[in-house]
Design brief:
heterodimer, A: 1040 residues, mainly beta, 22-stranded antiparallel beta barrel, 8% helix, B: two-stranded antiparallel ribbon, two-stranded antiparallel sheet, 22 helices, 6 strands, 48% helix, globular, disordered N terminus
Chain lengths: 1040, 506
């Protein structure tokens, strides 16, 4: 530091002397110096500074400073670096030229990763969107997929839970999943290493992407169409997300950067619950008002208002919520040493849940090394071990110890010990640890100037172990039950490929040819013990009531791939790719699948005849592609009929509380297929996804406005479906196979604008993205019969022509029957309308009798919306003025229905045996503002709580609980201030930036759910899920 | 220069390794991609040892166990709709009243697969057993001789015989309950699931199929068991002959029935249990047992919801302090069947007989894993010696061989401490059916006995006098064959509803 300071003084002295020397130097060469900063006032190292038209040049140093001696006075200087808009400045005799480089957000000269090679954006024929790491850095989430919402047209990212480390539902161009509750995640490729989150099992369902520190990300390229994804062949069907992490640049001096932020997650808004005496008054009023209640068996909780055991006013909710802390710290060291580059970083992230007892802590060191042991050989190493520790509440796996239906009444007395148990404060009850080690070694040999060969070996090792204890205080049986699950995943991958690049006059070629082999082994151990003496997760001791099982599975894969890119004069573009993949999941005849794509593009704006329009249209490119990608979702051994030793039968048992089950017949262990499951599909094979994409890229007014537009249609053919109803004579309940086809088709639109002149000090950029997607089934087995999934009370269907998982419900229309007489009468029989044979009466809902048989049953259910989003998008406005920056991200989802189990469950909780159950549970006290029928004349939303014949009037299978799940969110506001280099230097650092963020700022929605974004994949939410929260952070970024 | 050489060497080594790797992966590509299940047995790695063969056959029996327990299939079909219960006494639990009242048409939502009435109208489990029997018949011959511990040929014959028995038994059982059911292709078994749609065959075809399978089983099986522990709970020649006796009796082929029943009764393999020790029969594997379903060990027992839970109350089942759930018809029990106080089957087979709520204690071998957790440890006694002896007597009576029939009948009566039958020759057949009612009370026989009584004698005794649940006309129309669940008809266009019920089902 002292030396630095001395340097600084020396520099200043020299600077002063330099000024003094100007008169002399004007006659000869001119020396120009200056400092280059970015919009955030951070010094930019590595900018190439050239005297225009000469080979005379230099690069800026780590302080953003440069010095160049111009060969002639007044020469023009060029400042250039990938990621920034190239600037040309006439020196005009000046000796000090400071400048601010503009981010080149939509530059066409930048490169995009397309798998095994990178190509310039201008020349790509594929549909690819890019997110810069800077846009998402320091957002307070554990994984970057939670930060993608609204940023890429056609990419849907929805949270399912506010729990730290929760999975997001990420879909590119709609869902391809026909398994209920399962999402078809895109393929993630992290620095060239495949990271398939569809195939990364762990105990709790923590997001595997939490293993990647979002602040290590340099950029994210989203490959959407077949042209881009086909090189990943059998894995590209759901789109590919290429993640590039930060690395060292050649010639870059060492740079140390530290970044810290702290934040608060705001305690969620509590539901409105009536407590204490008011609760008792409400319940007794309802009971006396109804005519079905036997007052003799009223619960003592309700009647004995003087007993201190029952007359409490316990606020259960406040036990579980809190303002929670988020802490993030990153340190990195980047630079180069001779011909080698390196980057070493460590990230620390700690997020507490707004529900007590939940947390996620991550330590993620990462090392990147690029060595050149020979002139033509380059070796790179990427090693990133990640250590994640999560906790999930009181150990019973639920967010709250109580469901919405079973929410306790305030009459209960809660002592301190119980309080602590419910809060998860007593002991360590749920400990979930994951170690992920991603590593990659890549050797590239430059054989000739145009040809390189690369060999890459990568390994992903994931070890997850969760130990938890369901305390007798919350288990319901009074027994302490201990569980331990362990998941070990080991993936290795070898890739060898040749890259060729060459130009012959106007013809330029680039090609890739390669081969890949991959293997994955998953090992699982489950162990549990019932009635253990321990109170913590200290382990399972030998004894009775033990259960353990282990499972091992392996899959392998081989592939050949190639791609050829060709362009003529840089404006007629052509690309073709082919991949042949084999998977161990299929039998010898069905093993190999062929995937390919063809695409072309025409840069019209580079045509001579277009020259006149060039001032308006800086770019006009048309592109189109067709290709087939694939997917192999079948389980590892789908072709084999697995045998079970499950010898259970109706009511067979080892005794209550003993989870062991029969495996023998007369003492002999049995073997047979699991006939309650799905029959094997011997001929199961690849799913195939043909896709057409037509698009245009338009740049206007010197690229101040950029527009990308795409239309696509992607079929998903021969999807593997596991639960088709088998003929009863087959012996199986279900059969599996490549049975279902569906289609996603839609438009995407991206608009980037620089709203103010590039020379303006105030900069305002707007990005608008929107995607419209329609999803529908095109083929089903059994002659196209609907496939129904879910329970009778919560059915969703796959039916031809409808979106996947369309809700199937009774149509409720026209309110409530006010009198018994109002219930329609069947003119043929003279009988009143019935619900499953039970006569309707006053207080029941008016349900539409679709088939006119005056009985409401399963045949009267109709399709009614689906959880698929039709329109998704986002709007980002970024402003910068000198060191200040502000960015506002708004997102929206439209055309999506959600299943409101929250309202349904609260109403249901208010119906069961009121006189008894209302004593224990909150019941109608938790209804908030819901209006329900009490007496004739009531203009209300819901049927009667107490007087009805219809059991399921508040069940999910009624259309009133299917809601519009659209929303508009002000998702994130981030503010930053970068101190000028001068101030930074006073503080003896090279760069200093303060920033802050508000996340989940505001939401507009018509849904009555606490947050319609945060529902299960099926679209269902019962309000017991982990609530999302508003987060505030404040951070500091220092560069040394 | 030195660096250049080093460089070249490095590159050479690197490229050589690369080429090796590519070549290796190409040459062993097929083997590389061959991944078979590791933690599960599967069709890819089975049928190698005797132990596997034995395990597979045990699997077949466990599928029968599942079939006979699902929805209390054995008792709900064999006893519940008979005069052992009364329409006037409410039967507890969902659906049982419908079964008892023969309201077998009652609609059950298609999604309510847990409902007993739906389970009783479906035959899935038997087709699982048939499917597995078919796979065993295909698989067992492929076990190499070296895989057997002892006499390979004898073991193979035993396993095959048992597999054929399981198939024959399944068709027989379904045929008695539903009449015509689909007969599936025996060959379409081993590798791929049989997704063909079948139509329902006729009752006669089903019994012909059961007969031919039983005869093959008969040819493979001996009277011996490979271990004493297998007695009665696995099939031997006796079990097959008992099955054939029931098949023939159902078909009215009483001559054939007499022959096979006689070969069982006089085989010397079985002996009567002293009626003082009557309950030992129902614990299972007594000297009298011919074919039973094993479920009387701690690891195979029935928890709450088994037959014991429905028939018992305190003190026989301490967790039920109220009345029994399936209330027996006191008229049938006290006034028709068990009128003689000396009948050992009344003394030892019932508890609290003289109360308003007599309790059948055949399935009362209960242990408690905790005060609230009873386990019933009784086998399902499918065929036993007195059953086959009385069946032989029935066959003889049907053929007019009354003296011979009386010997067998009176033998069973004397075991129970009763004197010889006083029935006239013309009433002898009915008397034998009544004796079966006493002897085999709550053993899943009564309903089929009453069907044979109606077929042979035109006497309709389903239910007591005040609630005769099947009259002559209804019987001729086949009311005693169960309807199949509408879910099955909807799923398979070739299926037709059981004729009597076709107009009554939705």
């Amino acid at each position: 530091m002292k030396q630095n300071f001395t340097n600084h003084i020396l520099k200043t002295v020299f600077g002063v002397m330099f000024y003094l020397l100007i008169p002399w130097s004007a006659f000869a060469q001119t020396k120009v110096t200056g400092t280059i900063v970015d919009k955030s006032n951070r010094p930019v190292p590595g900018i190439s500074v050239f005297e225009k038209g000469t080979r005379n040049g230099t690069t800026s140093n780590v302080d953003g400073k440069y010095a160049i001696t111009l060969s002639k006075v007044g020469a023009t200087m060029t400042f250039r670096m990938v990621g920034y808009i190239t600037k040309e400045i006439a020196s005009a005799g000046k000796n000090v030229i400071d400048l601010t480089m503009e981010d080149d957000n939509q530059t066409l000269n930048e490169v995009v990763l397309v798998g095994y090679q990178s190509v310039s954006r201008k020349k790509t024929t594929a549909s690819i969107s890019t997110i810069k790491g800077k846009a998402i850095e320091n957002t307070p989430y554990a994984s970057f997929d939670q930060m993608l919402q609204g940023r890429v047209a056609g990419l849907t990212s929805l949270g399912t839970s506010g729990e730290p480390g929760a999975k997001s539902v990420v879909n590119i161009r709609g869902s391809n999943s026909i398994s209920s509750g399962v999402n078809s995640y895109p393929l993630y490729v992290i620095d060239g290493v495949i990271f398939d989150v569809n195939d990364m099992p762990n105990s709790y369902g923590t997001n595997p992407l939490a293993a990647i520190n979002p602040n290590d990300i340099e950029s994210i390229d989203v490959l959407k169409d077949a042209s881009a994804a086909a090189i990943y062949g059998s894995r590209g069907a759901n789109g590919v997300i290429m993640v590039k992490t930060k690395r060292g640049q050649p010639g870059m001096p060492p740079q140390i950067s530290a970044n810290v932020y702290q934040g608060i997650s705001e305690s969620p808004t509590l539901r409105k619950i009536i407590t204490g005496a008011a609760e008792r008054r409400l319940k007794m009023g309802l009971i006396y008002g109804s005519n079905r209640v036997n007052q003799a068996d009223l619960s003592m909780f309700l009647t004995d208002s003087l007993n201190s055991a029952f007359n409490n006013n316990t606020d259960w909710q406040s036990l579980f919520v809190q303002n929670a802390k988020i802490t993030n710290a990153d340190v990195s060291m980047t630079g180069s040493e001779g011909r080698s580059q390196y980057r070493f970083s460590t990230g620390f992230y700690n997020e507490q849940g707004v529900i007590t007892g939940f947390s996620l802590r991550r330590i993620a060191p990462k090392l990147y090394l690029s060595l050149n042991p020979g002139k033509k050989i380059n070796v790179t190493f990427d090693i990133s071990p990640t250590f994640i520790k999560t906790q999930h509440g009181v150990g019973d796996g639920s967010t709250y110890p109580f469901s919405t239906q079973g929410f306790p009444s305030s009459f209960w007395k809660v002592n301190q010990a119980q309080r602590d148990t419910y809060k998860g404060n007593t002991d360590n009850l749920d400990e979930d640890q994951t170690v992920t080690l991603l590593s990659n070694v890549k050797v590239t040999d430059t054989i000739t100037k145009h040809l390189t060969i690369t060999s890459s070996f990568s390994s992903t090792y994931n070890h997850n172990r969760r130990d938890w204890l369901v305390s007798g205080l919350v288990s319901g049986t009074g027994l302490n039950n201990a569980y331990s699950n362990e998941y070990v995943t080991n993936i290795w991958e070898i890739e060898n490929y040749l890259n060729y690049n060459n130009n012959f006059g106007d013809h330029s070629f680039s090609a890739v040819l390669g081969q890949e082999a991959q293997g994955q082994t998953n090992k699982t151990t489950y162990a549990s013990a019932i009635d253990v003496s321990s109170n913590t997760v200290s382990g399972i001791s030998p004894g009775n009531n033990l259960f353990a099982s282990t499972y091992i599975e392996t899959r392998k894969r081989l592939g050949w791939f190639g791609r050829l890119n060709y362009d003529y004069k840089g404006r007629y573009l052509f690309s073709a790719s082919y991949r042949r993949d084999a998977s161990s999941r299929y039998n010898v005849e069905k093993r190999w699948g062929n995937f390919y794509s063809l695409s072309g593009g025409w840069i019209i704006s580079d045509e001579p005849f277009f020259a006149k329009l060039k001032n308006t249209f800086s770019l006009l490119k048309l592109r189109g592609s067709y290709g087939v990608t694939g997917n192999d979702p079948a389980n590892y051994y789908g072709q084999y009929q697995l045998y079970t030793t499950d010898a259970r039968y109706y009511n067979s048992s080892f005794g209550v509380n003993n989870s062991a089950s029969a495996t023998t017949y007369n003492g002999v262990t049995v073997t047979m297929p699991n006939y309650e499951g799905s029959a094997a599909a011997k001929n199961v094979t690849w799913e195939r996804y043909p896709q057409v994409n037509l698009g245009a890229d338009i740049g206007l007014f010197k690229d101040r406005v950029n527009i990308a537009f795409d239309w696509y249609s992607r079929d998903a053919n021969d999807l593997y479906y596991q639960n088709a109803i088998a003929p009863v004579t087959s012996g199986y309940q279900f059969f599996s196979g490549n049975l279902v086809s569906l289609r996603n088709t839609g438009f995407e639109f991206t608009l980037n604008t620089n709203n103010l002149s590039p020379s303006s000090k105030l900069q305002w950029q707007t990005t608008f993205t929107a995607g419209i997607n329609d999803n529908y089934i095109t083929k089903l087995p059994n002659g196209g019969q609907d496939l129904i999934v879910g329970n009778s009370w919560s059915q969703q269907t796959l039916s031809v022509g409808q979106p996947v998982f369309t809700y199937k419900v009774y149509e409720v229309a026209g309110g409530i029957y006010q009198t018994d007489a109002e219930v329609p009468t069947d003119p043929l029989t003279g009988k009143k309308m019935t619900f499953n044979g039970v006569t309707l009466k006053a207080g029941d809902m008016k349900v539409v009798d679709q088939n006119g048989d005056y009985n409401l049953d399963l045949n009267d259910k109709i399709p009614y919306g689906s959880p698929n989003s039709r329109i998704t998008g986002g709007l980002t406005n970024s402003f910068s003025y000198k060191g200040f920056s502000i960015s506002v991200l708004c997102t929206f989802i439209k055309g999506r229905s959600v299943w409101n189990g929250y309202t349904s469950d609260r109403l249901l909780a208010s119906t069961y045996s009121p006189n008894i159950v209302w004593g224990n549970t909150a019941g109608p006290a938790a209804l908030g503002g819901l209006s329900y029928w009490v007496r004739p004349g009531d203009d209300v939303d819901y049927a009667t709580l107490t007087d009805s014949n219809v059991g399921d009037r508040f069940g999910l299978q009624n259309s009133i609980f299917v809601e519009n799940g659209s929303f508009f969110k002000v998702k994130n506001i981030s503010l930053g201030y970068a101190f000028s280099p001068q101030i930074a230097q006073v503080l003896k650092v090279k760069g200093l930036r303060l920033y802050g963020m508000i996340d989940n700022v505001y939401m507009y929605t018509k849904s009555s759910l606490p947050d319609p974004e945060f529902v299960e994949i099926t679209g269902y939410s019962n309000g017991s899920g982990f609530p999302p929260s508003k987060k505030y952070t404040l951070g500091l970024n220092v560069t040394f | 220069m030195k660096e250049l050489i080093k460089n070249n060497q490095l590159r050479y080594v690197f490229n050589f390794l690369l080429i090796c790797m590519v070549l290796m992966s190409v040459s062993s590509c097929k083997k590389f991609l061959e991944e078979k299940p590791q933690s599960n047995s599967s069709d890819a790695n089975y049928w190698l040892t005797e132990a596997q063969g034995n395990s597979a056959i045990a699997g077949g029996y466990s599928l029968l166990r599942k079939a006979l327990n699902d929805g209390l299939f054995h008792y709900a079909h064999g006893d519940l709709p008979t005069d052992e219960f009364s329409s006037e006494r409410a039967i507890g639990g969902e659906d049982w009243q419908f079964v008892q009242n023969m309201e077998w048409y009652t609609a059950v939502p298609s999604a309510s697969t847990y409902r007993p009435l739906m389970k009783l109208r479906r035959f899935d489990n038997f087709y699982s057993a048939i499917n597995w029997a078919n796979r065993c018949i295909a698989g067992i011959p492929t076990i190499p001789a070296s895989g057997y511990k002892s006499d390979a040929e004898a073991k193979k014959r035993q396993f095959l015989g048992e597999a054929y028995f399981i198939r024959a038994f399944s068709y027989f059982y379904m045929g008695r309950v539903f009449g015509g059911v689909p007969i599936i292709n025996d060959q379409s078994s081993s590798e791929e699931v049989d997704l063909n749609s079948y139509r329902r065959s006729t009752e006669a075809e089903v019994f012909a199929k059961a007969t031919s399978d039983a005869k093959i089983a008969q040819s493979y099986l001996t009277w011996d068991y490979s271990t004493a522990a297998d007695r009665a709970v696995r099939a031997n020649k006796g079990a097959v002959l008992a099955l054939l006796a029931h098949i023939y009796a159902w078909q009215g082929n009483y001559a054939a029935c007499e022959t096979v029943a006689d070969s069982v009764v006089n085989s010397g393999s079985y002996g009567y249990v002293d009626r003082a020790n009557y309950l030992a029969i129902f614990k299972g594997q007594s000297t009298e047992g011919i074919f039973e379903i094993a479920q009387n060990s701690a690891n195979e027992a029935t928890g709450p919801g088994g037959i014991g839970t429905f028939l018992l109350k305190s003190p026989y089942l301490t967790t039920n302090t109220g009345t029994t759930s399936w209330l027996l018809d006191t008229v049938t029990v006290k006034q028709n069947l068990f009128t003689d106080p000396d009948d050992l089957r009344r003394k030892n087979g019932f508890g609290l007989f003289n109360t308003a709520d007599p309790v059948c204690i055949k399935y009362s071998n209960i242990t408690y894993t905790s005060s609230t957790s009873p386990l019933t440890m009784n086998n399902i006694i499918v065929f036993r010696l007195s059953d086959i002896a009385l069946l032989e007597a029935e066959a003889q009576a049907a053929q007019g061989k009354n003296p011979q029939a009386r010997i067998l009948l009176d033998n069973v009566r004397s075991l129970a401490g009763l004197g010889g039958s006083t029935a006239s020759d013309s009433d002898l057949f009915s008397a034998i059916i009544e004796e079966r009612g006493r002897e085999l009370f709550m053993e899943g026989h009564r309903f089929y006995d009453l069907v044979r009584l109606a077929r042979v004698k035109g006497i309709y005794k389903f239910g007591n006098s005040s609630s005769n649940k099947i009259n002559a006309t209804e019987f001729q129309a086949g009311k005693y064959f169960w309807p199949i669940d509408p879910v099955l008809v909807q799923a398979n266009a070739l299926f037709t509803q059981t004729p009597f019920w076709a107009a009554r089902m939705l």
